Amino acid sequence: MNFSIFTFMPRSNILAQRIEFIKGVGEAKAKVFAAELGVRTVEDMLQVFPFRYDDRSRFGLIKDARNGDAVQLKGILISLGRVRMKRGSRLKGAFKDPSGIVELTWFQGAKWLEETLQIGTEYVLYGKVKVYQGQKTIAHPEMETLAKSQQQSAFLPVYPSTTVLDKKNVGQRSRRNIVMRIFESLTKEDFPEVLPTSIAEKLRLCHRYYAYKWIHFPENEEQRQQASNRLKFEELFFLQLRILQTKKQREQKFKGFVFEKVGDYFNRFYKEKLSFALTGAQKRVMKEIRYDLGSEVQMNRLLQGDVGSGKTIVALMSMLIALDNGYQACLLAPTEILAQQHFLSISESLKGIGVQCAFLSGSVKGKTRGQLLMMLKEGHIDILIGTHAILEDPVQFKKLGLAVTDEQHRFGVAQRAKLWTKNEHIPPHILVMTATPIPRTLAMTTYGDLDVSIIDELPPGRKPVATVHRREADRMRIIKFMKREIAKGRQIYVVYPLIEESEKLDLENLDQGYQELLNYFPLPEYQIAVVHGRMKPRDKDMEMNRFASGRAHIMVATTVIEVGVNVPNASIMIIEDASRFGLSQLHQLRGRVGRGADQSYCVLMTKAGLSQNARERIQTMCRTNDGFEIAEVDMKLRGPGDIEGTQQSGIVELKIANIVNDVQIMQTARHFAIEILNKDVDLKLPEHEILAREMNKLKSKNQS
Ligand code: ADP
Ligand code: MG
Questions:
Q1: In CATH, 58-151 is 2.40.50.140
Q2: Which terminus of the chain is less hemmed in, N or C, by CB atoms within 10 Å?
């Protein structure tokens, strides 16, 4: 028996065959598939999974069909024939079910239909009904003989499509037929197991053959579920295996400096300088970091903690451990202002301990810069704090032991990698900090090669920021509220959006807002500081300082203050045009207040006409202060493709798993991947041979 679906190719290894050799595909269609969906082989074709199913177990009646309804009908074709038109002709038919008659029309590509459709035969028909002057018509219906349709599953796959595919007559029906034809010549042998039996058994995964078959043509919900579980697990498992193997192999290749002791710098700071007790979470994280620094492995740790949770102290104490062991440390911040602020506060807290701190950014130039670089190279500077400028090649350390980056989401993977090259032989330990909570799935993927520490506790006495949504009509009430709070000695941020394409317009908005505020808050009684991205760093700093020192009551700013600025007395954040900000950005901004002991407020101002998406963002902000909850909602609203970092990690290319919804499966996959790699990192054991093979296959696929 020869079931070959191919016009002339041999039956062996069907999955690797090119699709143009499948009967009914051909060269032209194959080209369209390749260009539109990247589908070249039979396997590619099977890996374009349906995104939903049409339930074809139910039939409608012609008499109930309304204009625009998509219906499935069961009945008899009672007539078929060409009708001459001004130009060419069209094919028309009549279809009858127990309740009535509907007209069918085909405008193009109808020649073969004319030849295959048979009057008097029972068909199952699917299409969209148009009613015109009482006459019901269906254009281009999908038709299948009743006999054949009864062999098909009730759930018909609906595949992701493109307008080009639709235009080139590769519609859903034709796609389905291609996949169905492929399965006609596939057997279980064509789907060898790629997972160790122990895992497949433990998780009761169905056979891969059924997984593929049922994902395309499930007979019931249970089959669909089983298929989807198996395929999602497989996909996430190999993703985790890849990420974690790279990490482990890297750890083996690069040794880390061993910081054996905690010495004077650390101890004196801890005993003499630290004015508060560390929170439980801070202590736990310090322990995790100290463990890393004392082991022989290079640390690559992500420190996650909501805004205001006290990451800086942790970074500082970690740097002091580096110093205690005879090494230098550096701290990178994404903006000049934030770097400055770190420099000032860290220099202040280290006063009298004998630590040399220095500041470096693009604005440090000429002689000062030259001198600084020399001192750094000779080891006279212990801690260097600054911006991206630190990454530049001329910036050389004598012995960099630890590099910290603040607000990692502002830095790319490439920049992190650059830090590795700051020493010749052994890379420094790396600590990256972020206040933008990373949804759990991302923590396991984009950041999956980092160990994660979480500060999940705020210092005592912090009150959640009360957040409200207000509109233009409430403006006067807001002004009064601002005056009351200023009278109590509080300070206020007023923030305007800044989006690059409309930078000019945004500045006008900011300026207009500033002028208006001047009317309500006149000099000399009130002082208003202004900061935006177009200002010279020096002017920015002057204005920042005016606010930070308490001389200005209000700070009007663009999002330059988004990150890290710390003015504990500022307790009110007013965000203008809040609907134009992303959710995580709003959360970051709100994090600027609520740092002191006073009750803090965040007011989200919006104009009329909010989109559904914007409304959800605003409502989420008003409902919760929990950064993790906000991050999850953010990801749902934006989709993973938009989330920073997903591009580099390859997770946007997931074929079936969903990064938002499949956290549970991802966790299980990660667990099994860790278990295997702990035993056998290079996948050399005989029982892991299939894994190694599959990994290689995926790797070569990714490169092609
Ligand atoms: P973030 O995690 O946002 O970088 P910071 O490190 O800037 O937070 O800390 C915010 C504020 O909380 C700072 O003023 C800091 O001195 C203070 N702080 C940090 N840890 C504690 C603590 N354990 N107890 C009280 N205040 C703390
Ligand atoms: Mg910070």
A1: yes
A2: N
CA neighbor of 410 nearest in space, from 467, 517, 501, 335 = 335
**Beta-bridge mates of residue 512:** none
| 6-10, 33-37, 410-414, 612-616: segment of lowest average pLDDT | 6-10
Cis peptide before 524 (omega within 30 of 0): yes
Q: Do 466-624 and 264-455 fall under one CATH topology?
A: yes
| CB 211 within 8 Å of CB 217 | no
Q: How far apart are CA 670 and CA 236, in angstroms?
A: 8
- Domain extents in the chain: 1-56+163-188, 58-151, 197-253+662-703, 264-455, 466-624
Judge contact between 139 and 128, C-beta under 8 A.
yes
Q: What is the DSSP letter of 275?
A: -
Q: Convert the pLDDT of each residue in 544-580 to its tens digit.
A: 889 989 999 999 998 766 555 678 899 999 999 999 8
- H-type alpha helices, 591-688: 612-623, 627-638, 646-649, 663-679
Q: How far is the CA of 308 from the centre of ligand 1 (A)?
A: 5
CB-CB contact of 7 with 19 (8 Å): no
CATH topology (fold) of 466-624 = Rossmann fold (3.40.50)
- The C-alpha atoms of residue 579 and residue 607 are separated, in whole angstroms, by 8
pLDDT at 468 over 90: yes
The number of residues making up the chain comes to 704
Cα separation, 589 vs 436, whole angstroms? 11
CB count, 10 Å around CB of 530? 22
Q: Which atom of ligand 1 is nearest to the CA of 313?
A: 6
Helix (H) or strand (E) holding 369: helix 366-378
| Dihedral over alpha carbons 695, 700, 701, 702 (to 10 degrees) | 90
* DSSP result, 286-351: HHHHHHHHHSSBPPEEEEEE-TTS-HHHHHHHHHHHHHHTT-EEEEE-SSHHHHHHHHHHHHHHTT
Residue 435 Cα, ligand 2 centroid: separation in angstroms? 7
Angle at 22 (CA atoms; ends 21, 24), nearest 5 degrees:
115
CA distance 311 to 319: 12
Residue 439 Cβ inside 6 Å of ligand 1? The answer reads: no
User: What is the value of pTM for the model shown?
Assistant: 0.68
Distance CA 495, CA 559 (A): 7
Atom of ligand 1 nearest to the CA of 314: 6
Domain 264-455: give its CATH architecture. 3-Layer(aba) Sandwich (3.40)
Protein residue closest via CA to atom 25 of ligand 1:
459
* Confidence bin at 5 (pLDDT 50/70/90): low
